[in-house]
Amino acid sequence: GHPAGLDTGRQDELGDLARSIGKLSKDLDRMKNERNAFLASVAHELRTPMTYIQGYADLAMKPGISGEAREKYSAIIREEAHHLSKLVGQLFELARLDQNDFAVRLSPVKLSALADSVLSLVRPAFEEKGVQLLCNIPERLVVRLDATRFQQVLLNLLDNALKHTPAGKQVHLQATVLKDTVKVEVADEGEGIPEDELSTVFDRFYRVDKSRSRKSGGTGLGLAIVKEIIEAHGGQIEARRRPAGGTVMTILLDKGGDDGTHSSGG
Ligand code: ADP
């Protein structure tokens, strides 16, 4: 027997347990820190438009102010209120996507038809800016996905591509099939994302150029939402720089054959 008490197998088990507990408690700390950082960002992001709204409302109500100035201030107030409401909408969206029981509803979808409906939504904006919009999706390609959610993803990526691409250049939406995987890409000819920020652009509130993004109404939540939706599909998304300049957003999805839904990992 083992007069000294625990045998070595038992000691190993206890050691493993202690290490697991140590790791769990570190994970918990990290999660708490992340949550705190997120809440602080939310508060900060909400405060900025609120400050503008309060400040300009005070100015607009000053006695003797000209009609012209009042109109200018009202326009700013409206813009900031719009930004606030977009922010709150996206926060709700993230909260929903983050719920453990959130699941995408997968069904076979003809990708070219889905793309057509998104393209018809964004085409006017592309035409207005003078950016060419090209689409190349195999006519009969069927993918199992959540149509509404995936439309939202394409809308967001095309919107970003348009925002960052100068007039006279092109944005290309394409899909290719590699065995059981479908690759969907949105490629633009814009300024591109700096190499060291290619993965951080998917973080909540991350913006490459804060002040510029604010002016164009950006919240820094769009790509975070896109990533959550793709991951809820069991897929992946990544950003790359094009050698010739510009960005490619690449989505990899299981073509689908298995039924049921994917639950988001959280
Ligand atoms: P925003 O609401 O600010 O656009 P996103 O989450 O959609 O937030 O994007 C995060 C940041 O990634 C943006 O601020 C922008 O700087 C950068 N970005 C996204 N798409 C592109 C693109 N196609 N080309 C260059 N930069 C991009």
UniProtKB/TrEMBL annotation:
Residues 1-33 form the HAMP domain. The chain holds residues 203 to 468 of 468 of the full protein. It is an enzyme of class 2 (transferase). It is a multi-pass membrane protein. Keywords: ATP-binding, Cell membrane, Kinase, Membrane, Nucleotide-binding, Phosphoprotein, Transferase, Transmembrane, Transmembrane helix, Two-component regulatory system. It comes from Bhargavaea beijingensis. Its main location: membrane. It is found in: Cell membrane. This is histidine kinase.
